[in-house]
């Protein structure tokens, strides 16, 4: 009997402030109509650190919800991985901060940076440990406070992003029928400049004359990213379905990275998917990067859209460039 990974709990942490497209119209040369038609986004959530809303607190909320649904305690955890490019502090990392407040003293814990693919990368790593039989219970989180990395003067990116956290508790299983069937993770550093933070943290430090705050914010060549995102998510989806001889018609729900409704539609068209099987919440939350997959899974499960036994295909794409797919039988 082989070991595998079962999902036993999910949770979300969303900041309270809802920012409508109309608010963006007040300080950017943009319109609700442009944003809706080009992206599908209507509102996004924006964290307020003054109210204690940060990557860590959103991640904690999501983690506590997921543990509660799973019926597990922090002390049951063997591992915590947090996918994020916006930790409150680089040191200690978010996963270590969570380890402390959740009482998960047995768990190893670390953050990983794979932009929007951070959750999928974390899930893939955990699945390998589970298959080896070296861990039993694990927490994987995708969290971003991208509002802190957005250049609010740049209309081509400021309208796209939102803040959120999503968490999933995984447990080792010997049940062949309810498990993560496979995960595939990919990267291509040659195209990193398409979506990047040019001056980074160390590249141009504040004491250098060429330091400019806006170069420490997200820059994106949107048109090119659009095409690569569609191509890679379609390719990753096909690869994982073909490897397991699973047809698109066998899948109950497709959860694509919630970056842009047109990207999701293009993926669905390329794969010839029934659009009723697409999960969509990009209109409410915008692109929450590493959080889009776990928040979507949490909402789909809690709303009854998916249930035990359903087959889910996830595909994501992010800066770096990174991308991933996963097949999960709930
Ligand atoms: N409001 C009004 N006009 C705008 C805005 C805005 N917010 N942003 C750009 N425009 C203008 C441009 O200046 C351009 O004007 P011009 O024709 O006078 O030069 C025009 O709209 C068209 O611009 P395009 O960039 O060609 O518009 P496009 O249809 O490609 O949409 C968008 C832009 C939404 C960014 C799209 O390219 C996209 O979604 N790309 C992928 C982005 C993405 O998903 N990134 C994240 C994936 S990875 C991750 O999640 C980190």
Give start-end ranges of low-pLDDT stretches: none
Radius of gyration: 19 Å
Per CATH, the superfamily of the largest domain is Thiolase/Chalcone synthase
Shape by Cα distribution: globular
β-sheet strand percentage: 15-25%
The count of helical stretches stands at 10
Walkthrough of the structure:
This protein has 330 residues and is an alpha/beta fold. The protein folds into two domains: 4-177, 3-Layer(aba) Sandwich (Peroxisomal Thiolase, Chain A, domain 1); 180-329, Peroxisomal Thiolase, Chain A, domain 1, CATH 3.40.47.10. It has helices at residues 21-25, 32-39, 55-70, 94-102, 118-132, 155-158, 222-243, 261-271, 282-285, 292-302, and strands spanning 4-13, 17-20, 43-46, 79-83, 108-112, 137-145, 163-173, 179-187, 195-196, 219-220, 253-256, 311-318, 322-329. It has a five-stranded mixed sheet, with helices on both faces. α3 (55-70) crosses α4 and α7 (222-243) packs parallel to α8. It is globular, with a radius of gyration of 19 Å. The mean pLDDT is 96. Acetyl coenzyme *A binds at residues 30, 34-35, 38-39, 115-116, 155-156, 159, 195, 220, 222-223, 225-226, 229, 259-260, 263, 287, 289, 317-319.
What is the topology?
Blueprint: E1 4-13, E2 17-20, H1 21-25, H2 32-39, E3 43-46, H3 55-70, E4 79-83, H4 94-102, E5 108-112, H5 118-132, E6 137-145, H6 155-158, E7 163-173, E8 179-187, E9 195-196, E10 219-220, H7 222-243, E11 253-256, H8 261-271, H9 282-285, H10 292-302, E12 311-318, E13 322-329
Parallel strand pairs: 4-5, 4-6, 11-12
Antiparallel strand pairs: 1-7, 2-3, 6-7, 8-13, 9-10, 12-13
Helix pairs in contact: 3-4, 7-8
Bound molecules: acetyl coenzyme *A.
Acetyl coenzyme *A binds at residues 30, 34-35, 38-39, 115-116, 155-156, 159, 195, 220, 222-223, 225-226, 229, 259-260, 263, 287, 289, 317-319.
């Amino acid at each position: 009997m082989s070991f595998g990974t079962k999902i036993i709990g999910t949770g979300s942490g969303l900041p309270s402030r809802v920012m409508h497209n109309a608010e963006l119209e007040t300080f950017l040369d943009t319109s609700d109509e442009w944003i809706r038609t080009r992206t599908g986004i209507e509102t996004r959530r924006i964290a307020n650190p003054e109210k204690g809303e940060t990557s860590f607190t959103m991640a904690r909320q999501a983690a506590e919800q997921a543990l509660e649904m799973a019926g597990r305690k922090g002390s049951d955890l063997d591992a915590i991985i947090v996918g994020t490019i916006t930790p409150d502090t680089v040191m200690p990392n978010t996963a270590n901060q969570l380890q402390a407040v959740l009482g998960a003293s047995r768990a190893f814990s670390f953050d990983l940076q794979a932009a929007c693919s951070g959750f999928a990368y974390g899930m893939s790593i955990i699945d390998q440990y589970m298959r080896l039989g070296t861990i039993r219970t694990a927490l994987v989180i995708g969290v971003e406070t991208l509002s802190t990395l957005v250049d609010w003067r740049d209309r081509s990116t400021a309208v796209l992003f939102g803040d959120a956290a999503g968490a999933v508790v995984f447990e080792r299983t010997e049940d062949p029928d309810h498990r993560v069937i496979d995960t595939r993770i990919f990267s291509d550093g040659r195209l990193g400049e398409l979506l990047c933070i040019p001056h980074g943290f160390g590249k141009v430090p504040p004491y250098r004359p060429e330091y400019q705050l806006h170069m420490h914010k997200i820059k994106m060549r949107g048109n090119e990213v659009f095409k690569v995102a569609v191509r890679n998510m379609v390719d990753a989806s096909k690869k994982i379905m073909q490897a397991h001889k699973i047809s698109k018609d066998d899948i109950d729900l497709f959860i694509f990275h919630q970056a842009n409704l047109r990207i999701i539609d293009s993926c669905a068209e390329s794969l010839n998917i029934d659009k009723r099987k697409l999960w969509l919440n990009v209109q409410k939350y915008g692109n929450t990067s590493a959080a889009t997959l776990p928040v979507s899974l949490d909402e789909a499960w809690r709303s009854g859209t998916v249930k035990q036994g359903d087959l889910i295909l996830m595909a994501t794409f992010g800066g770096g460039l990174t991308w991933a797919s996963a097949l999960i039988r709930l």
